[in-house]
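User: Hey, my collaborator sent me this sequence without any context and asked if I could get a structure. I don't really work with proteins. Can you help?
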Amino acid sequence: MKLRVVIERITYQNGENGYSILKARVKGYDDLVTLVGNMLDVTVGTVLVAEGQWKVNRQYGSQFVVESYEEAMPATLFGLEKYLGSGLVKGIGPKFSKLIVAKFGMDTFDIIEHDSQRLAEVDGIGPKRIKKIHDSWMKQLDIKDV
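Assistant: No problem. I've predicted the 3D structure and written it out in structure-token form, which is a compact way to encode the shape of the chain:
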């Protein structure tokens, strides 16, 4: 079974082996869904397409056991804000994430990657922050390619 999820909270993450317990928002589910499995370097705001199976843990209830996953780009403005505000991209926190997404909408990632100087159109973002954001974004792309 496959689920498309947005990571809302990290309950536990082992840096050595990647074992993680995550809470995620899933379309069609009222409550957050618990994901468990080896998911190294997954951060709050990340959108995943996770493949796995449901199981019921006696102590913790229903959980989705992730066997494999792929990171996907957020498909909503809320997802973009969460992703950028997660701390993954240096120079952007929750405040600037809201401002940037409000200004550029679904074109936000394209602008950061290909026309980062336009970030100066957002109040409070100057040349130093633009460089930090662009460099961090490009580094993240390189890491994801690996």
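In plain terms: The longest helix spans residues 127-145. You can pass these tokens on to your collaborator as they are.
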